Amino acid sequence: MSKRVTISTLNKMKAAGEKFVMITAYDATFARLVSEAGAETILVGDSLGMVLQGHDTTVPVSIDDMAYHTACVSRAKPHSLIVADMPFMSYDTPENALRSGMALMQAGAQMVKLEGGIWLSDTIEMLVERGVPVCAHLGLTPQSVNVFGGYRVQGRTPKEAKSILADAVEIQDAGASLLVLECIPAPLAADITRKLDIPVIGIGAGGGTDAQVLVLHDLLGLSEHPAKFVENFMENNGSVQESLSAFVDAVKSGRYPRDEHTYN
Ligand code: KIV
Description:
eight-stranded parallel β-barrel; 11 helices; binds 3-methyl-2-oxobutanoic acid
């Protein structure tokens, strides 16, 4: 990738049916490697609470943590679009969301990600109107793990599926630019991807989305208890760089995810 990726690059890729890739990174070195591997987007995920800080969930992550790691990633000047997670309770009101959005954008994010649907419409509208692009996140939203009672597949009943689809349409109408769908049945994710104009990024959501995201430590085989949708790309590759490129190639060619990574 020679030019910096923007939301128009991703919109064009969706229109052309070209898959794109998101990988998490939390520091300058990995941001450079992820960008060099050709991933169009980097997610400074609040998964850093688990993979860097050793917490059991993402709930303890603070806005200062997120701003610090976003600034580290941004200093690498990656070609990839930098999306940074708004952590737990940092967007509980539109006013808090504006403050948190400001902190992350000033640290170097080019878009912020937040978890939730219809209840966030006003917040998304307010952020976008003030120059903060938004990626929404639906399905298994890890900040709500204590409400779900564990990391469980969402959208399996007709009622849940209907509600996730309604949330997706609402957040698009509110002005979100991207949507992440996590751990939902593949047919539901494919249906939402077809119905939305904005690009949809899946994780544990099958191969019918416009893009795939994985947590860096998962795809490098470093996680203790990987989920069903994770592939360890270090297994058949000799270096971190080769593994990142292999993940990018596998997504773009449709070789990842396979049936064994998918919920139905
Ligand atoms: O925090 C994170 O890494 C995420 C991905 C799992 C999508 O939100």
